[in-house]
Amino acid sequence: FHDHALMIIFLICFLVLYALYLTLTTKLTNTNISDAQEMETVWTILPAIILVLITLPSLRILYMTDEVNDPSLTIKSIGHQWYWTYEYTDYGGLIFNSYMLPPLFLEPGDLRLLDVDNRVVLPIEAPIRMMITSQDVLHSWAVPTLGLKTDAIPGRLNQTTFTATRPGVYYGQCSEICGAN
Fold first, then answer.
1. Alpha-carbon distances, residue 15 vs 8, 18, 54, 83, 163 (angstroms)
2. Which of 1, 9, 23, 144 is spaced 20 to 30 A from 164 at the CA atom?
3. Rounded to whole angstroms, how far apart are CA atoms 59 and 38?
4. Residue 159 and residue 171 in contact, taking contact as beta carbons nearer than 8 Å
5. Per CATH, which fold does 73-174 belong to?
6. pTM of the predicted model as reported, rounded to 2 decimal places
7. To the nearest whole percent, how much of the chain has pLDDT over 70?
8. 120 CB contacts (<8 Å, ≥6 apart)?
């Protein structure tokens, strides 16, 4: 897509530079251009055609990268005020809540406001589909180290896909400002 868009940009730049060159090197008065309805029509339609030529491949790429046809695992995440509920839908109703650990229960090395009592366990090198919704108010399910942020909206089911490429603990958070916790 980058090469496709770059070729169109080069063509536009070449045509504009050529028009500037002709304007600077020829006489400034030309009776053929003063009333040219055909030229004005071309100037109007040509940018629309160029935008369509750039838009169609980018939309195709956008939808191809967003959809995983056969994920290894599907997890539904439901946002509540101050906790998340996770459902492993592929494993017959495995449901649990994940609460932030209060500061009194933190072990040395735990991260304040990030560590939880029940962590989500995911396989590495496997495509994972995460379905995200909310029970009460707007939330934003985010895992910054995976480059993920998806809004959780009551009554709407949003979807994101990702693949964890290395083992470890990935900390996520609600990135909405919604209260004291």
1. 11, 5, 17, 58, 44
2. 1
3. 31
4. no
5. Immunoglobulin-like (2.60.40)
6. 0.65
7. 90
8. 75, 86, 98
What span, in angstroms and rounded, lies between the C-alpha atoms of 77 and 103? 24
Please give, one letter per residue, the 3-state secondary structure of the chain: CHHHHHHHHHHHHHHHHHHHHHHHHCCCCCCCCCCCHHHHHHHHHHHHHHHHHHHHHHHHHHHHHHCCCCCCEEEEEEEECCEEEEEEHHHCCEEEEEEECCHHHCCCCCCCCCCECCCCCCCCCCCEEEEEEECCCCEEEEEHHHCEEEEECECCCEEEEECCCCCCCCCCEECCCCCCC
Query: CA-CA distance, 66 to 85, in Å (whole number)?
Result: 24
For residue 1, which amino acid is it?
F
Six-digit token string for 162 = 């990702």
Q: Which amino acid is at 60?
A: R
Please compute the mean of the pLDDT values over residues 90-101 and round it to a whole number.
88
181: exposed, middle or buried (Cβ count in 10 Å: 0-12, 13-18, 19+) = exposed
Q: Are 116 and 100 in contact (CB under 8 A)?
A: yes
